[in-house]
Amino acid sequence: MQLPRRWFGVDVIATLLHEQIVIHSSDGHRVARPLRRVASQLGFDRQGEALFTGVVTDILAGPQVDHVRADGGIECHTHWIEAPDGQAVGLVVWIAAPPTTTRPDYNSWILDLQKVATRSGGDNLSIIGDGRQAGEERAIRHLLRNMIPDDAGEFLALYYGAQDGKEGRLTEATWSVRRPDDPTQWVHFWSTTTALGAPDDSNRTVYGLTAQLRHREMDTRMGTLVQYTHSTLLMVDARTGFTVTTTGELAPAFDSDEQLLGKVLNQVDLHRIPPAASHETVVEQTISIEGDQYNVALFAVPNARQTTAAPVAILLVPATGRGDTP
Predict the structure, then answer these.
(1) Of 103, 149, 205, 258, which is most buried with the most CB atoms under 10 A?
(2) 290: burial class by Cβ within 10 Å (0-12, 13-18, 19+)?
(3) Is residue 104 reached through a cis peptide bond, with omega within 30 degrees of 0 on the bond before it?
(4) Sheet of 137-139: strands edge to edge?
């Protein structure tokens, strides 16, 4: 019997909705498939798959309590990941011969589609770097304040997939933030959402499960541009006007002053940029922020996952001689 010596993250909500075990991740790496479709790829033979399926089915039917058991040279370790409202969203499980390897970290969250805000829980919220506490509600832009701006398209696609998708449909995003203790280093994540309720249901609830990745390939071109031009970049959803993330010189001021951010958004015309426009389409204008003049460039940043919900980048560059009287 072949039982791979790995930690498997089980998507609890998807498993219950689809009535088959859905593997979220393997040792923290993306799977997002029903077990029966990928068992052999993950290292199970038929007997191993049958044992794993039976044990996990029994665990899901029982109390949500972490435990360790051993029988016949096989160890079973379980760890539940709950959302802030107590809903189980993930089951991290080891069913194989000992010794176990290091268990990956998982965080949970609930997405408020109207407020575009999240409440989080799970293993380690400190790695996000925004200072949030378990169950505390924060706007998406706070969650993503240290994110690579190039990843904004991924998260916006996740948001619209969670809003418009059928019940039980998985939507996903891969993203990275600067380490809170060392801004020269990155922490990488893979996030998924699963919704309960129809898209037009006012009680629709969107649950998220995030695995910390050990590494990923990153695109940091836009962040590098901001760094070397001493500018500020806002990644904004043109449909709703909510800010996905901010980075650069004015980002701390925008994080602490919602009204200041609103003043900027009121001066730019997001609708001049078609949602699916090429990134080569640029609209330029000049705005004033607290008496200082800024040259602004607006352009869409589509991503491979979702071009119809591309975020609009708002690049703010200090005008020459800002603060001086003309």
Answers:
(1) 149
(2) exposed
(3) no
(4) 137-139, 117-122, 106-112, 205-213, 182-196, 170-179
Unique residue bearing structure tokens 């040279």: 73
252-294 pLDDT, tens digit each: 898 888 899 999 999 998 878 766 555 567 889 999 999 899 9
Predicted local confidence at residue 230, as pLDDT = 83
For the segment 144-157, what is each residue's pLDDT rounded down to a tens digit? 877 888 888 888 88
In terms of Cα–Cα distance, which of 179, 234, 169 is closest to 207?
169
Mean pLDDT of the chain: 88
DSSP state of 270: G
Helix (H) or strand (E) holding 48: helix 46-61
Six-digit token pair at 49? 């798959």
CA dist 160 and 171 (Å) reads 9
If one counts every other C-beta atom within 10 angstroms of the C-beta of residue 288, the result is 13
Residue given tokens 């997939």 in the structure block: 161
- What share of residues in the chain are helix, strand, coil (percent, to 5)? 25, 40, 35
> What is the pLDDT at residue 323?
46
Q: Could you give the dihedral angle defined by the CA atoms of residues 59, 62, 66 and 71, in that order, rounded to the nearest 10 degrees?
A: -50
| Whole-prediction pTM | 0.86
Q: Which strand ranges, in their side-by-side order, compose the sheet holding 243-248?
A: 243-248, 232-236, 312-318, 292-300, 282-289
CA 301 to chain centre: 18
Q: How far apart are CA 60 and CA 218, in angstroms?
A: 36
Q: Are 85 and 60 in contact (CB under 8 A)?
A: no
What is the distance between the terminal CA atoms of the chain, rounded to a whole angstrom? 80
